[in-house]
Automatic annotation (TrEMBL):
Protein name: Oligopeptide transport system ATP-binding protein
GO biological process: peptide transport; transmembrane transport
Pfam families (alphabetical): ABC_tran, oligo_HPY
UniProtKB keywords: ATP-binding, Cell inner membrane, Cell membrane, Membrane, Nucleotide-binding, Transport
Record organism: Paraburkholderia phenazinium
InterPro entries tied to this protein: AAA+_ATPase, ABC_transp_ATP-bind, ABC_transporter-like_ATP-bd, ABC_transporter-like_CS, Oligopep_ABC_C, P-loop_NTPase
Entry annotated with the keyword Kinase: no
GO molecular function: ATP binding; ATP hydrolysis activity
């Protein structure tokens, strides 16, 4: 794919500015058949013990980075994971692939439990690493500066396909580099010689060269310019169609997530607030936090932006070391009532399919003060 393939614009909906995207159906891997679940996460928890004070010997507190998250990824689909900074998105992604210890819960890859009650069987992790790979947020920092591009992309094959001969290994590396828009003439160069977008293409080639079935993308475009973001999103969509991949796409940019995802999971302070298809979450958000996120995205029409209504949040995000009782969002929620402080809300099934919302106020009449017109 060339660096200039950014011609088509997808309507982002809800007044969002469009993102330029290349060929293929708008909004995720629409052309691929979505099959059975390949990744199943159940009640996953990642807690850290951290000092309360400035000294290492200070008393410890529990930071609940991920607190009871459940979802699944199906064959051939993209699940978008969104939320503001600090909500636990990247920690969840790293816990699934084995880069961060798990406190409790389970992760199942196809028919194998890779995490059970917080423990990781070594044999299960070996299979997981062959089938699941990761693309990291910082494209340059994720590449070894002392290795050539050929060495970087070859390294996974040495671990996952040790029986390959030298010629076949090199052929696979060259083929994958060409698929991501680079070529054989880049093999002897080093990471610092490339732009951010090119480094991310190398990172994608490294993740895909071993033929994984699921790729976890941890904010893969957040460090790139907007025009380059569109190129990388195009590339991931094209590769997903060609290779029949499943993607778990972590991002805080709602427009990017809508452009590539089929289902969307919204997180806040380590918990899932809402889960549904792209059309459900963006077209008819049910959770007050989801509505606030979408409301915060500016619209391209100045006249509409000056008069439209906004979901208003007050206060700051609570410390993850001192979460409020009950619903973690209640201290900022414009629709909170007394019952919200009594217990953690369970995910409620809404409509058909697997749409779920963690809010006891779902279906209730909104509080009158939750929205108002904003004049700028």
């Amino acid at each position: 794919m060339s660096e200039t393939a950014t011609q088509r614009t997808v309507d982002m909906g809800n007044g969002m500015a469009g993102m330029p995207l290349g060929g293929g159906a708008a909004g995720g891997n629409a052309g691929a058949a979505v099959g059975e679940s390949v990744l199943t996460v159940r009640d996953l928890k990642v807690h850290f013990r951290v000092p309360r004070g400035a000294y290492p010997w200070s008393s410890k507190a529990t930071l609940r980075a991920v607190d009871g998250v459940s979802f699944e990824v199906r064959r051939g689909e993209t699940v978008g994971l969104v939320g503001e900074s600090g909500c636990g998105k990247s920690t969840l992604a790293r816990a699934i692939i084995g880069l961060t210890p798990v406190t409790a819960g389970s992760v199942r890859w196809r028919d194998t439990e890779t995490v059970s009650d917080g423990r990781r069987p070594a044999s299960a992790m070996e299979r997981l690493r062959k089938d699941v790979q990761m693309v990291f947020q910082d494209p340059l920092a994720s590449l070894d500066p002392r290795m050539t591009i050929e060495q970087i992309v070859t390294e996974p094959l040495k671990v996952q396909r040790p029986g390959l001969g030298r010629d076949e290994t090199r052929a696979r590396v060259v083929t994958m580099l060409e698929r991501v828009g680079l070529g054989a003439h880049h093999l002897s160069r080093y990471a610092h010689e490339f732009s951010g977008g090119q480094c991310q293409r190398i990172g994608i080639a490294r993740a895909l060269v071993g033929e994984p079935q699921l790729v976890i993308c941890d904010e893969p475009v957040s460090a790139l310019d907007v025009s380059i973001q569109a190129q990388i999103v195009n590339l991931l969509r094209d590769l997903q169609r060609e290779l029949q991949l499943s993607l778990l796409f972590v991002a805080h940019d709602l427009a990017v997530v809508k452009a590539i995802s089929q289902r969307v999971l919204v997180m806040y302070l380590g918990r899932v607030m809402e889960l549904g298809t792209r059309h459900e979450v963006y077209g008819s958000p049910q959770h007050p936090y989801t509505r606030a996120l979408l409301s915060a995205v500016p619209r391209p029409d100045p006249a509409t932006e000056r008069t439209r209504t906004h979901a208003v949040l007050t206060g700051e995000m609570p410390s993850p070391l001192n979460l409020p009782s009950g619903c973690a969002f209640r201290t900022r929620c414009p629709e909170a009532i007394g019952a919200c402080a009594e217990e953690v809300p369970q995910s409620i099934s809404r409509g058909t399919g697997d749409r779920r919302v963690a809010c006891i106020r779902v279906g209730a009449e909104p509080v009158a003060s939750t929205v108002h017109a904003v004049s700028r």
